Amino acid sequence: MSITTEAPVTRDARDLIHPTDLVAVTATVQRNNPGMQPDVAELITLEAIKFEAACAAHPRAGLRPSRVVDEGWHALILHTRVKQSLADRLGMFVHHVLEAPDAGRHDPDALTRTQNAITAAGYTPEPALWVAPTDTSIPVAASCQHSPPGPEGSCTGDCSNTGPN
Questions:
Q1: How many Å apart are CA 83 and CA 16, to the nearest integer?
Q2: Helix axis angle, 19-32 relative to 38-57, nearest 10°?
């Protein structure tokens, strides 16, 4: 699937989440990654929100978060009320389906495709967070790797959904 990357407006992911919810999800990222600076944890959280927005805008594109963004996405998933509120705003609940991690299934094109979808959804991806699973420039606890989608998605979530909320 081809995704047009021209976006008429640059949006702010902060507009999709209440400020206190952003603080709570960011705190979860920090708790899971002792020593991580608050601004890095917030950046990871915001990138996970952009990922959700791209998934909602392009539900069949086979999008994947990077290992770093996956850390923020997992934190978001733990905050079920926040995740539901985000789904309500986006008009779609983005599901995560577990699969055992396997570095051999990494699809580098998926990261590019996902960043393009984020751009097409009107957001600016943070390139430093969209690195290959072996890049440890930003150490995170997440160890999921990317894999091709099966009928239910992948370990890092292929934006499977049940349709509009």
A1: 10
A2: 110
User: Backbone phi, then psi, for 71, in 5-degree steps?
Assistant: -60, -45
State the Cα–Cα distance between residues 146 and 70, nearest whole angstrom. Answer: 10
Gap between the Cα atoms of 55 and 72, Å rounded: 15
**Domain definitions of the chain by residue range:** 15-164
Which residues, listed in sequence order, are joined to residue 161 by a DSSP beta bridge? Answer: 94
Report yes or no: 33 and 141 within 8 Å, Cβ to Cβ: yes
The Cα 160–Cα 31 span in angstroms is 28
* pLDDT band with cut points at 50, 70 and 90 for residue 155: very low
**pLDDT (tens digit per residue) in 27-73:** 999 999 999 999 999 999 999 999 999 999 998 888 989 989 999 99
Count other Cβ atoms within 10 Å, centred on residue 122. 17
Within 8 A by CB and 6+ apart from 16, the residues are: 49, 52, 53, 86, 89, 90
Report the length, in residues, of the chain. Answer: 165
| Token pair of 105 as six digits | 């299934």
